[in-house]
Design a protein that fits this description.
With about 240 residues, the chain is α/β, with parallel strands linked by helices. The protein is built from nine helices and five strands; from the N terminus they run H-H-H-E-E-E-H-E-H-H-E-H-H-H.
Amino acid sequence: MSIRKKEFTVQSQNVGDERTKLPKCSFHSVDKLKLWVLKLEWDEPLSNLIAKEWNDFVSTLPVIQNIHVPRLVIGKGRIIIHGFADSSTAAYGAVLYAQSISEEDVSTRLLCSKSRVAPVKLITIPRLELCACVLLSQFLEKVLHSLTLHIQQIMLWTESNIVLAWIQRSPEQLKTFIGNRIKIIQRLTKNCQWNHVSSNENPADLISRGLNASGISSKQLWWYGPDFLKEVFEV
């Protein structure tokens, strides 16, 4: 059965959102980007290869019905928000976690995530990582406005040492594309601490690289963050 670009676009918009806490773009961002690069018309059918990739992904969707997402994500004690950003040539995204620290326990739970398909026009990986950090900064601001809890600390994480170096510089010293985005990051995250995280410990990597529904259900990294969030961070 052939699938047209219009049908694929409608179907893909219904997969994953902030409410279900599933990474919306991660599953199909590569296929979506391919369609835009190929410049298919709305009523043109997908190629056999892309159609097969999409059908294979859709066949894993029933697994989502068995995923249990706890409503309670904030525990007792002081609260630290951790935000992660990552990018690839296909997509970039951000994910937030709430770490609750009490005398008895340290627990971390997924709050929400956000993702974007990468621009069709090719740009460098550092600039894509920068876009991911902008998305994280803007998403964080939105979420903080919704929370009525006292947040003791906010820690933000990226794999890009280049972006971390840019954040420490004055925007006026950087090229226009970079400087304009650094201004946004510095304004929105002036009270946050930026840190480096390795790729294998970055849950946002699951957004940018892609994962099907059956894979995400058992990914502890996605639901609870990296293992180092089980530790107590010094404020």
